[in-house]
Every structure is written in structure tokens, then in C-alpha cells.
Specification:
By secondary structure, the chain is of the alpha/beta class. It is built from seven helices and eleven strands. It has a single domain, classed as Spore Coat Polysaccharide Biosynthesis Protein SpsA, Chain A (Alpha-Beta Complex), CATH 3.90.550.10.
């Protein structure tokens, strides 16, 4: 039987230096729960995800198993692995643990807690058809390119520009090949899709959601509180 499983790799290895709280951002509280728990809940509830591999700082593995995975009964999480020096190293650790029965791999940031369920479905479906699929939203603002001193070099056509998010979904063999190539050449990309592009594969953008934010600063956390409150209000939860 051909591989059928869809596995989500959730890298959550940030140190939270930009947040300035002294605590890694994935553990900060959002409506009383760690940000990471909110993210995992979405994938736990998705009917298009069969298994979750969580990657966290090595020193946090036991704590995360106890305080987040077990405490929330996240039954789809098959393993909690130690991360690496960079995000790409952490994803590679997760990818190395993906079994041969996996057809599609989804990669999603641990501090991006609001991916719409329909968006997960759409990127998984596209990857299931053999294409790399990533979430993104059109750039709203004017984008300029500048030199290191801040002198404007030119103004880019924003009609061609997208702000890329996660989830990003790939045929498992494609992503593994892209990672092998990047590792062999000691190349680090800006996201997983950039490695796949570099390996020669096309990547399609699936329209994402401006609320699907990545929480990296204090300002992001304030915005996330508002988004979370609106989601809870629409769902009828207090």
C-alpha cells in the first residue's frame, strides 16, 4: 500500500529574545494557555492531520511532554524531539523521524496559533496531488529595497509580492530530498519552501489569512489577544 499518512512537524525552539520576557515565546500565556498549546490544539482537531512531531529546545523536552502534551491530551503527538541551533536544524530533526508511511509533511510554526482549519485542508490537499503548497497573503504596503545605510534603491511592484506564512505542505519525498541537498551544501534558507525551490521544484501559494500571525514581539501578543477573543466570541466560548 502506498504511503497515506499526513504528518505535521511543529518547530517550537525559539528563545524569545525579541519578546524581552525572559521566557521562550512559545510558553507565554494566551488566554490562560501557552501559545504552543493553542497551535497544537488546531492540529490535534484537524481531520487532515494524522500525526504530530513536536520539536522544542532540548532542555524543555521533559517539561513540554508533561505540561503541554500530557496535560492537554494531545494524542496525535507521537514524539517530542530536541531541536537544533537554527529552525532549519529543528525541522530536519523532525523530518528525520518521519516514517516511510508518510505521504505529506506539513510544517507549521509553533508560535503561529491561528491557522484556519480550511487552510490546513487546502495545503494538504495540494501536497497530496504532488505539489508543494504554502500559505501567503498579498503585501498591502509599498515595499522598497534599500542599501545597508537605508538609501532606497528601488520600489518593488507589490502586486507580485506575497507575505509567506505557515502551514507549508510538501510531498514527503520532495521535502526530504530538498533537506538532504541543503544539508550537503550547508545551505540555510529563509523557510522550508525556499529549500524546495532551490531543489528545483515549483511551489504554489495558497491564499492565507492576515490573522494567521506569528507571535514574536510584545505587540504581536497584544494583537493575538484580540484575535483570540474574537475567535472565542464567534465560537460561543467565554
Amino acid at each position: 500500500m502506498p504511503p497515506q499518512k499526513t504528518v505535521a512537524i511543529i518547530p517550537a525552539g525559539g528563545a524569545g529574545r525579541r519578546m524581552g520576557t525572559g521566557q521562550a515565546k512559545q510558553y507565554l500565556r494566551l488566554n490562560g494557555r501557552p501559545i504552543l498549546a493553542h497551535t497544537l490544539q488546531v492540529f490535534q482537531e484537524s481531520g487532515f492531520i494524522d500525526e504530530i512531531i513536536l520539536v522544542v529546545p532540548e532542555m524543555d523536552v521533559s517539561r513540554v511532554r508533561r505540561e503541554i502534551v500530557n496535560a492537554n491530551d494531545f494524542s496525535k503527538i507521537s514524539m517530542v524531539l530536541p531541536g537544533g541551533r537554527e529552525r532549519q536544524d529543528s525541522v530536519r530533526n523532525g523530518l528525520d523521524a518521519v516514517g516511510e508511511d508518510c505521504r505529506v509533511v506539513v510544517v507549521h510554526d509553533g508560535v503561529r496559533p491561528f491557522p484556519p482549519a480550511a487552510l490546513i485542508r487546502r495545503v494538504v490537499a495540494e501536497a497530496g496531488r504532488g505539489r508543494a503548497a504554502i500559505a501567503g497573503v498579498p503585501a498591502k504596503d509599498t515595499v522598497k529595497r534599500a542599501d545597508p545605510e537605508g538609501l532606497v534603491l528601488d520600489t518593488l511592484d507589490r502586486r507580485e509580492l506575497w507575505l509567506i506564512q505557515t502551514p507549508q505542505a510538501f510531498p514527503a519525498a520532495m521535502l526530504k530530498e530538498a533537506y538532504r541537498k541543503a544539508c550537503a551544501e550547508n545551505h540555510y534558507g529563509t523557510d522550508d519552501a525556499s529549500l524546495v525551490e532551490r531543489a528545483g521544484y515549483p511551489v504554489v501559494i495558497i491564499p492565507g489569512d492576515y490573522r494567521n500571525i506569528k507571535i514574536t514581539t510584545r505587540e504581536d501578543l497584544v494583537v493575538a489577544e484580540h484575535i483570540s477573543a474574537n475567535i472565542r466570541k464567534r465560537s460561543g466560548r467565554s
